[in-house]
Amino acid sequence: MGEEPDTVAYVLRLSLNLRGEGLESLNPKELKQLESRLERGCSKLRLKKYDQLVAEIQFLEKREMELEHENSYLRVKIGEVERMLQLNMVPAEQGLELNPMSTFLPSRDLLAETMAQTSSASAYAHVDKKLLHLG
Fold first, then answer.
1. Cα(91)–Cα(76) distance, rounded to whole angstroms?
2. Angle between helices 100-119 and 28-88 (to 10 degrees)
3. Could you give the angle at which helices 28-88 and 8-18 cross, rounded to 10 degrees?
């Protein structure tokens, strides 16, 4: 590392040294400088990795909440449809003529709209998304 810091030869030698090659020609002071550079680089990498993990955890926690909300919503809708079907099984002479599908169809539109809103994760475009496969 005896060359001037702005020469091509210096940059090439530094590149080799950072990869762990050509170290035999370095004196103890140069080895210590190289070690310091590598430690700073590793610290920056760890920080970047940590930041990405935090962002991914936050995204997944928000997605979990959205899915729990959607699950609750769907459970309520299933309960409503089941109640409507039970009411529809009551004999007509009791005066209960309900069509459960007429009350269910509007909620399907709402469900499709809700799913479209939840699936658009443009606010999280900066996070690398990984597919999550559930049983």
1. 25
2. 170
3. 60
- Would you call 107 exposed, middle or buried from its count of C-beta atoms within 10 A (0-12, 13-18, 19+)? middle
pLDDT per residue over 68-126, tens digit each? Answer: 999 999 999 999 999 999 988 755 444 444 454 544 444 555 555 655 555 544 444 44
Contacts of 115 (CB under 8 A, 6+ apart): 70
Q: Identify the sign of the CA torsion 57, 58, 61, 66.
A: negative
Distance from C-alpha of 64 to C-alpha of 75, rounded to nearest angstrom = 16
Which two structure tokens, joined as six digits, stand for 96?
């209960």
Q: List % helix, strand, coil for the chain (3-state, nearest 5).
A: 75, 0, 25
Give the distance from CA 27 to its chain's centroid.
46
* 100 neighbors 85 (Cβ within 8 angstroms): yes
